[in-house]
Write a structure and sequence with these properties.
Helix content is 30%, strand content 24%. The protein has 269 residues and is α/β, with parallel strands linked by helices. 48% of the residues are buried.
């Protein structure tokens, strides 16, 4: 539900030592598939490589572990790159610059993969693949809190990630005397809850679920918003790339690879 960090982070990304790590799914392969010809016909920013921008961390969708980027989004784009016969490079950028289209328009990457909700406003600046994940919002509080619903946030402070659909939903639905405090990413948002800087956090359900491990925090409410995540590309000149991405997503669903990755991160078994 992110609308998935600061704008300055996105603008400064070219000046920062960007971590380019290979995601899971065999994306080391540099051999060109017959369908993509190594991506030369897709207008890639670097021939033979699918360059992906993401706001990291946002567990379980994208995070670093063991010196590599992993998570649902990262494994999925790794599998896509592999099926296209391309190497995968991941760049960590600010979410604001990504969802605004600045990062993609400036040619820093070919696509954005950052738990990004498809919205009408974003579609004015970006083109999206078919939705690859259905999500909903949730309210996270310390275990034993007297906050049980969004109405209980009256007079309280709730934390959100700036630029996300979670922030939009919160501002539209909390009581008028609720203070809404926005943070660049979950890396700052959850610590604010831990340190009691905010009384609750409202954001994507899968991300909040990660914070319930250990029993110190609990989800007290969920909100259906009919949100779908999509991979983003710049608005103009990416028709061939977008068609290829959609084709590979469909292929991964048909051959069972998508379900395998999904079960790795979201299975309740």
């Amino acid at each position: 539900m992110r609308i998935h960090s600061t704008f300055t982070k996105a603008l400064a990304v070219s000046a920062v030592a960007l971590m380019s790590l290979t995601a899971c799914g065999g994306s080391d392969s540099g051999s060109a598939s017959s369908g993509s010809g190594g991506g030369d016909d897709l207008g890639l920013v670097q021939a033979g490589t699918l360059t992906v921008c993401s706001d990291i961390p946002y567990k379980p969708f994208e995070y670093e572990e063991g010196g590599k980027y992993t998570g649902f989004d990262m494994d999925l784009v790794g599998a896509i790159a592999d099926s296209m016969g391309l190497k995968l490079q991941v760049k960590d950028v600010g979410f604001d610059g990504l969802q605004s289209g600045v990062v993609l328009a400036s040619g820093q990457c070919d696509m954005g993969a950052s738990a990004m909700t498809i919205t009408p406003d974003r579609e004015k600046k970006l083109s999206f693949t078919e939705g690859y994940y259905d999500s909903e919002q949730s309210l996270l509080v310390p275990a034993g809190s007297d906050i049980k619903s969004i109405e209980d946030l009256a007079g309280k402070t709730v934390g959100v990630q700036q630029g996300t659909t979670g922030e939009k939903y919160t501002r539209e639905n909390v009581p008028s005397d609720t203070k809404v405090q926005s943070y660049p990413s979950d890396a700052e948002l959850f610590p604010a809850l831990q340190s009691k800087g905010v009384d609750a956090v409202l954001q994507d359900l899968p991300v909040n679920l990660e914070h319930t491990q250990g029993g110190k925090f609990e989800i007290v409410a969920k909100y259906k918003t009919d949100e779908k995540y999509g991979f983003a590309v710049k608005k103009e000149g990416t028709e061939a790339l977008l068609k290829e991405l959609d084709a590979k997503l469909a292929e991964l669903k048909d051959n069972g690879k998508y379900q395998e990755i999904y079960d790795k991160y979201f299975s309740t078994k």
